[in-house]
Design brief:
Length: 317
């Protein structure tokens, strides 16, 4: 694997004119480096600069200032674009074509011909589970089938960088699971490729990605591995008890989330010191402890706390 980063964004700013003497800064001095062979999630609220950033990486927009390199090549060059496979949020194809015809058409545009093209199309249709529907016209495809066909199209020339814009958008729960499995398959069969995708669904990002970049108001707020974000949070524990006295419940568990479960009453605690103190109180009171389980922090909580800490630092400055 080459040591050259797949995406290098250096001090990039994008300003749009919104009137005669008005402008809006969509991306503000963004610096980001994405290594090869990773799955990276791009997150942020609406208006955070995600779409603008992706369009600049793809070469659809030019930065007002700064530089973007794709595998060492400037993003506005033909060479850089040849390194990218792109899945738009709402892909569209000629409705009168079949799935096979769509892939042959785009394959020829990419310079593929003959037996190599035929084998590649057959392989990709099998990968995205469209082999049985390859002779159907695209106008009869569901949203999920169209998404999978677009993914096959993005993989035709086996690019080192895949950019997927909201790949789970509009899919039902089963479709989302199928899409997650497909993305895992793609990266499993092409471990040196980089997948950079945006999503509003944090559960999908947490399952699929190694790292996340979080944008807010055009600025990069967080860029870290998911494991490090979650590991930085204090450990949470769930303890299930039976026959706990009302006195203990109203004192040591006064501010703890609690719920009734089949085996007793469950309480949520944060931190090993809190757990140790609670256990000593329970043992002294001879309360029956059914179970103690460590709980993994959710990405949503970790991101919220990380950005909360950053906001506090900015205020203190």
């Amino acid at each position: 694997m080459s040591s050259t980063p797949c995406i290098t964004i250096t001090e990039v700013t994008k300003i749009f004119k919104t009137g005669l003497f008005k402008s809006k800064k969509a991306v503000d001095n963004l610096t980001l480096q994405v290594p090869q062979g990773e799955v990276i999630g791009l997150l942020g609220p609406n208006g955070s600069g995600k779409s603008t950033t992706m369009k600049m990486i793809l070469g659809f927009l030019k930065p007002t200032s700064g530089q973007i390199l794709i595998c060492g090549q400037s993003s506005d060059t033909k060479m850089a674009r040849s390194f990218i496979g792109y899945l738009p949020e709402n892909p569209r194809f000629q409705k009168f074509l079949t799935g096979t015809e769509v892939l042959f058409y785009y394959g020829k545009l990419l310079g593929l011909t003959g037996l190599a093209l035929k084998k590649r199309v057959e392989y990709l249709l099998e990968m995205v589970s469209l082999k049985q529907a390859n002779k159907e016209r695209v106008q009869g495809y569901s949203k999920g089938m169209t998404q999978r066909l677009a993914i096959a199209q993005s993989l035709l020339n086996n690019p080192p960088l895949l950019i997927f814009d909201e790949p789970m958008s509009g899919l039902d729960p089963l479709g989302r699971i199928e899409m997650r499995n497909l993305i895992n398959t793609i990266h499993g069969e092409n471990p040196n490729s980089t997948l950079f995708f945006s999503s509003h669904v944090l559960e999908d990002v947490e399952i699929l990605c190694k790292s996340v970049a979080f944008l807010q108001a055009g600025k990069l707020k967080t860029y870290a591995s998911i494991d490090s974000l979650i590991a930085g949070e204090e450990q949470r524990y769930e303890i299930v008890l039976q026959n706990i006295s009302r006195e203990l419940e109203s004192t040591i568990f006064k501010h703890c989330p609690q719920r009734d479960v089949a085996t007793g009453k469950s309480f949520s605690l944060e931190g090993p010191e809190k757990l140790s103190w609670v256990l000593s109180q329970l043992i002294e009171a001879k309360t029956k402890i059914v179970s103690i389980t460590g709980q993994r922090r959710k990405l949503e909580e970790a991101l919220f706390r990380a950005n909360e800490r950053l906001s506090l630092k900015e205020v203190s400055l």
